[in-house]
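Handout, page 2. Input:
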Amino acid sequence: MRRAHWIVMGAWVGLFAAAAAACGDSATGADIPDPPGADGSASDASRTDASVVVPTKDSSVTDTGTNEQETSVPTGDGGLPTVSTAEIDFGNTDCGSTAAAQTFTISNPSAVAVSFTSELVKSAASPFTIDPASGSIPSGQSVTVTVTPKPVAIPSTTAQNGLGDQLKLSIGPTTATLDLKQSARGGVLRFSVPSGIDFGNRTIGTPVENVFAVTNAGNAPVPITLSVADDPSPFALSVNPTTATPGVQEARVTFTPTAEEDYTSAIKLTPGAGPLCDVAPADISLKGTGTTGVVSVTPPSISFGSAAGLVDCGTTAPSQKVRITNSSNAAFQFSALLTRSTTVYTLSYNTTANAAAINNQTVAANSFVELTVVPKQIPQTSSTAPDAFGDTLTITTTAPGDATPHAIELHQTARGAVVTRSTNSITILNAAGAAGVPIGVTATSPSYTFTNLGNVDIVLDQKTSAGTPFSVSASTLTLGSTAGTNSASSSASFTPVAVGATSDIATVSQPADAPPVVLCGNLPGNLTLSGTGAAPSIAAAPSPLNFNFVPCGTQAAARTVRLTNNGPATTFTATLAKGAGSGFTVSPANGPIGAGAAIDVTVTPKLIPSGTTGATTSTANNGINDVLELTTGNVAAPFNVTINETAQGAVIDFNNVATKNFANTARGATSAPSPTTVRNTGNLSADLTFTVTTTSGPAGFTDAFGPATSTSTISAGTTSTSNNNLTFFPTASPVPTGLYQGAYSVTLANPVPICAPLPTMVLTGTATN
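Output:
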């Protein structure tokens, strides 16, 4: 079981440094069983389970085998989220069919909900769909994500993993990658001579044979039937394969003219039962002319190397012979010429060797001669374009009636892989696109591309030097030889372990444990990788954290501060400078934080008391404040975030006057008015009702203070004396003289938050004769 791990880049309430150690093999997600079918047919598939420790972001639900999505039962006991596999292999799927869906699981054993999003690298062109593509995973629960292959189209490439893709998971502030593997299974049938076969002028009754090939560029055998269109016909199949296995199958067709006329026909290929990953090839056209002439030149075409005319780069194909037959009773002369000025062949005849032309040689009556065509070596670095090493051999004779030259096509194509890479050097930058990647943080380069311009599939190993802070995402590169399969992308990653610039190289080579593939050019050289390590740091936002105005008697909603760890995995702490006396609480107070990860720290304001409960709270701007001190094990100095909150409400008082004394006032008289100051030192205006009451006096007393009630609006931060002039008027006889007492109180005419108790003033006065 292959196991891959990512350090979590988020944080979980209640996790301590010990939890970070849980991202080893003990963080294994549940294995997911392989689906049925592994016979290499319509949907043979295998699966590699792996537990991938990943950071947090959003998910979805557990697949129950129906179209419904159901959240699984919590089973986590704390720790880091896991992905159940790093690879899903759907195996080989017959073209025209669909592989069964498979699933993987994201588990969240942590103490906080996480979210995830997903992206298929091939986007809309991907051969897969993902459900759900994003979602949320509650604490202690898991989510099953279904990967559904699309039907394998016809045509499709049959290159290994040609229908694969990569699923990029964004889980919290970091990413994880799942390899989705799938190969199309079926035959891809072609004729080696799509332009047709021309036998030219041939003597009546004399059979002439021509070689062609059926190629199967796919990966599955296909039963075939080759047939000549007309029956009877002067054309006949002398070698007729019945199965096209992957590779090249030789076939032969013979032309035996029976009359002096032009003949045409065609060879048709009919596939039998078996998967096909492309349409059957078009018919091969056949033509030839029956003559009573005396000259026969065979074969009409030559394919060097394989039946398809393929010759490995760096090698030389065997020589081939051309026969010139004289069926008359008189000798004639012939000449032979290679057409291309830069030909890759020479001609040999009798004592003449390595010639580009043979001139005026005699063919005796009723005999034949053979001319040897000798190919030169295919250079090690060569173009693999079809017939780039072809030519045309032209034979002319002096025989009567043989005025038309005999053209023999020489087919030869260099065979091998030609691999290029889109860049030769990469400098890896930080997330802001600048130099300096914090120690312990992994930065990834933009992708670069390998392309195979040759005609042979190739697999390459890509690796960096051992013990360096560099790595590559694609350690194995599978490059097909047809459009759509002949490229592969990779990226490089840099995880510095020290401050300063450093470099490495990435090399490519053929696997040591596999037969070497012929190359028609050098493999790409070293890829230079460079990066600069930077000292760890931390950051937090927003800073400052402002809760603004909060009415007294209420509690503001919690807000979060995101702590970013620009350094290796470590632990963090979050404390408030005022400790238990703070107007806020913070959670989590500590826990693990991954390399380059971020965690949200929640700051929750406490309830601001209301004046109705007897409490007094300052309404000064930012009067409720504290400092959130954030620290990690990587950085000695804390990152301080100022927290501000302003209590909102009215604060009413009588200018700090608690008692008003009217001294001596004669019975039946009224004292001089006594102004009373009312202040609102808060930050909200208030509509107030003022009430004057007489609470005690000599026997039989009545109201002695006034006015009885009044109403006034007191704006925030102002002082008022209007409607607040109080008087003392002791009642007349028969009430005796003596001490009177009363109260001047305030109530709210309309509801408004108050941040201090409403005041009451004690009134006293003495009645005299």
